[in-house]
C-alpha cells in the first residue's frame, strides 16, 4: 500500500500562502535549500526549478506521483508551464478545467477520494505527494498517511490555511524534527491508526 503525504510549507500561524497566493515571505537559506529541499526531497521541486538548481538528474526518493489542486497548478500555467512536475506522474484536481492543457497531466474531476484510494492500492512504486492546496488537503484529510510540514519562522496573519475542512479530530504522531539555520523547522508526522 502506497502512502499519501501532504508535504507543505507553512507560517507559524498555519498559512501555506499569503492572501494573494504568494509564498515570498518564506525565508530560504543555503543550508535549507541544499540539505533539505534539494538533498532530501528533490522530487518536490518543480522540474524547471530542479534544472535551475542543477538537480534535474536527482532521483525521486520519496514520491513518483503528485496530486495538486487547480489553484496550485495555475501558478505554473501563469508562467507558461503546463507540466510542472514532469519527473512525476501528475494529477490536478479541478472542476473548472474540462481538458488537460498537457498530455502528461491527468485531471481528477470526479470522486477524489476514490481516485486516491486507487492510487494508494497500486503495487510497488514510491509514495504520493500531495502538494496542495488547502481544499484538496481538506477533502483528503482521512486519506493522508503522513504530514511533512516545513514551518517557516514568520507570521502572516491571513492567507490560505493548511487545511480547509469541517471540524474533526485527526491524530498524528511526531516522527521527526529537523531544524535549520534560517529558523525553519521540518516536522514529520504519521497518522495514528485506530
Automatic annotation (TrEMBL):
Q: Pfam families recorded for this chain?
A: RibD_C
Q: Could you name the domain of life of the organism this protein comes from?
A: Bacteria
The record's listing under InterPro entries reads: DHFR-like_dom_sf, RibDG_C, Riboflavin_Biosynth_HTPR
All copies of the Bacterial bifunctional deaminase-reductase C-terminal domain together span 3-186
Tell me the leader sequence span.
none
**Gene3D superfamilies, sorted:** Dihydrofolate Reductase, subunit A
Cite the PANTHER family for this sequence. 2,5-DIAMINO-6-RIBOSYLAMINO-4(3H)-PYRIMIDINONE 5'-PHOSPHATE REDUCTASE, DIHYDROFOLATE REDUCTASE FAMILY PROTEIN (AFU_ORTHOLOGUE AFUA_8G06820)
Q: What is this protein called?
A: Dihydrofolate reductase family protein
Q: Per the UniProt entry, what species is this protein from, by scientific name? A: Streptomyces cremeus
Amino acid at each position: 500500500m502506497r502512502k499519501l503525504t501532504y508535504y507543505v510549507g507553512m507560517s507559524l500561524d498555519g498559512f501555506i500562502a499569503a492572501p494573494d497566493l504568494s509564498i515570498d515571505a518564506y525565508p530560504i537559506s543555503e543550508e535549507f535549500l541544499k540539505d533539505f529541499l534539494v538533498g532530501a526531497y528533490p522530487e518536490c521541486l518543480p522540474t524547471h526549478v530542479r534544472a535551475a538548481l542543477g538537480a534535474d538528474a536527482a532521483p525521486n526518493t520519496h514520491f513518483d506521483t503528485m496530486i495538486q489542486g487547480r489553484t496550485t497548478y495555475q501558478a505554473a500555467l501563469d508562467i507558461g508551464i503546463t507540466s510542472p512536475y514532469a519527473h512525476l506522474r501528475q494529477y490536478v484536481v479541478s472542476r473548472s478545467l474540462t481538458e488537460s492543457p498537457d498530455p502528461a497531466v491527468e485531471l481528477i474531476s470526479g470522486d477524489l477520494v476514490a481516485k486516491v484510494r486507487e492510487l494508494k492500492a497500486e503495487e510497488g512504486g514510491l509514495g504520493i505527494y500531495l502538494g496542495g492546496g488547502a481544499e484538496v488537503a481538506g477533502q483528503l484529510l482521512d486519506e493522508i498517511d503522513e504530514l511533512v510540514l516545513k514551518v517557516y519562522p514568520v507570521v502572516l496573519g491571513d492567507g490560505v490555511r493548511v487545511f480547509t475542512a469541517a471540524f474533526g479530530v485527526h491524530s498524528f504522531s511526531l516522527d521527526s524534527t529537523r531544524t535549520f539555520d534560517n529558523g525553519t523547522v521540518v516536522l514529520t508526522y504519521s497518522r495514528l491508526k485506530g
